[in-house]
Design brief:
The chain has no helices and eleven strands. By secondary structure, the protein is mostly beta strands. The strands form two sheets. Strands 2, 4, 5, 6, 9, 10 and 11 form a seven-stranded mixed beta sheet that branches. A four-stranded antiparallel beta sheet has the order 1-3-8-7, with no helix packed on it. The protein is globular and about 40 Å long.
Length: 124
């Protein structure tokens, strides 16, 4: 079993930056993928970014490309999402997800483990 714990959410003004982290514990795999999703009130959970832990290959949703950066520290079993130039429409609960396959997925069904989420609020 894998446990994921997010941290680093909060309130920021539009144009500002925030970094959220996700630390995995339990049965972790070096050849796995981790991703970030977000869910705003009344909307479906949507893909934000993902990374393959072994290669560092990344993939981003078009809505965040050029503004968000996903990275990992395998020694700490931690994945980060650096969010710059934040917009009010980025406001959502951000969820970390993981699977045990070295393959990026943009679908929620592509991940086996989920964190509890961390709130990110961007004020205008």
């Amino acid at each position: 079993q894998v446990q994921l714990v997010e941290s680093g959410g909060g309130l920021v003004q539009a144009g500002g930056s925030l970094r959220v982290s996700c630390t995995a514990s339990g049965r972790t795999f070096s050849s796995s993928s981790m991703g970030w999703f977000r869910q705003a009130p009344g909307r479906e959970r949507e893909f934000v970014a993902a990374i393959i832990r072994s290669t560092g290959n990344t993939y981003y949703a078009d809505s965040v490309k050029g503004r968000f950066t996903i990275s990992r520290d395998n020694a700490k079993n931690t994945v980060y999402l650096q969010m710059n130039s934040l917009k009010p429409e980025d406001t959502a609960v951000y969820y970390c997800a993981a699977n045990d396959r070295p393959r990026i997925s943009t679908l929620t069904s592509g991940y086996d483990y989920w964190g509890q989420g961390t709130q990110v609020t961007v004020s205008s």
